[in-house]
Amino acid sequence: MARTPYHEARPLTEDRRNFILFAVIAALILFGWPVLQTRLFPAANPPVSKVVAGKSQALPQPQADPTADSPAALRDRAQVLAETPRVRIETPKLRGSINLRGARIDDLVLVNYKETIARNSAPIRLLSPGGTRDAYFAGFGWRGEGLAPPAPDTVWRASGPVLRPGSPVTLDATGGDGQRFRIRLSVDEGYLFDVRQTVLNAGPRPVSVASYGFVNRTAPSVDADTWTIHVGPMSAHNDRADYDVDYDDLAEDGPQRFTSTGGWLGFSDLYWLTAIVPDQARGFDGQFRAGPNKSFQADYTAAPRALAPGQAVTQGSRFFAGAKEVALLDRYTDRQGIAKLDYAIDWGWFRVFEKPIFYYLDWLFRVVGNFGVAIILLTVTFRLLLFPIAQRQFASMAKMRAIQPKMKAIQERWKDDKARMQQEVMGLYKTEKVNPLAGCLPTLLQIPIFYALYKVLMLTIEMRHQPFVAWIKDLSAPDPLTPVNLFGLLPFTPPTFIGIGVVPILLGVSMYFQFKLNPQPVDETQKQVFAILPWVLMFVMAPFAVGLQVYWITSNILQIGQQRLLYARHPELKIAAAK
Predict the structure, then answer these.
(1) Which end of the chain is less enclosed by CB atoms within 10 A, N or C?
(2) pLDDT for residue 48 is more than 50
(3) Which residue has the higher pLDDT, 454 or 347?
(4) Taking the domain 71-339, which CATH number applies?
């Protein structure tokens, strides 16, 4: 029977409707993704990542709220450092000083890390003294009934001018009632300070003694706190890592407290960490608090002990201040017994994949000396491991396309009987020996690998500021070279969602050719979807780290090679897919 005009027009109308629907979805992905991404997946590290500036000054007692300097009281850092006597800190990784007024560690620079990739960039400054705009410091002291500790502005006496690994420094001060106080500080080759606090009760009455420690900082970090990567107040207590507290919680809900034996607490940026570590064998009370002008404090108080006249007591703690280097945090956790300090890096749910991938990637880097090349070798490794599965995937995809006409016939014949249609389709799969799920397996296996690599590139300090080739100076940042401003010749920086770099463009091209080699869909709407999908994903991936894009491009190229190899070995699959 001849088709009526209605029958001729209906498929065209459905195709147009489907295409319009896809265009709307693509537009939502293109323009809505940057907003969603900033909340769930921080795209890439900016060229500069450092401790944020702010205004803060803390009272040393942990039970006192952190306070802040008024803008008029803030001074230049060099001026503030010159106002008080100090003990220098010199280690292979740290430079700075200890403020003898108040016995604070408040001046610390990480000599191995720069603020930017520029050659003349200053090193990362982690700690700064109170009275400066970027105040961030740690201190230790005592509290207890009948105890008269030194005042916050007491100038302590130092046993030496410099604190170095293997060369500790002892600070002494006298309190009320003849009580004497001592802090013995030592530091290792990394970022860990050992703090031994001693009180001698030379008075006539027994006293209660409880040591405490605090770290106080200014406004929240400039690094984004997202669903996938936690930045902000962080602790480990009662045998678990706690990522649930953020700066807004402290400002809105008040202090967050806990009691534990073993653990630590402090503040985490994306790459840097300050953590006070009480004696791991003794109980302590920990808390996070907010103060005026967006200042924040983490502090602990150890369990009190009675101290009779003429007796002395020593209580130990440690202080970590530095970069979150994976191997170093693992060593402090395993060998120094600091419970879950390695959890300061928010590996998340895929920790079991991410850490082995990091260590393998780091080993490749040490072998070849270039992280970009190491990422390529990592990709080759994964593709080789998945090669047998991928070959079955390609064969299954080609067979599925080859039986499309038979499936269409079944759908037309049994369109009014869905149960019979499903039964006939399953029979067709069995007869043709086709598994419709086989093509999904390699993709599913790559999801945890891809996400793990994303977390490794975003989290680990070892990837920060690592160059690749030519203009790619930082694999953990987006591609800075874009044709939108004629590769930097025009003096403006385009918005992120249109500033597509060269590497994302290469990613889109590689995906285009990969899709072209795949068996083509029978449905016209699906063809249109696959034709535009590479360029949509190009925009989606543009803000991500170049290292992630290098992984994807390499994977696409290897997949194209695998498809060509499959069709060369089995030409009947290519012919069937083409038909």
Answers:
(1) N
(2) no
(3) 347
(4) 2.70.98.90
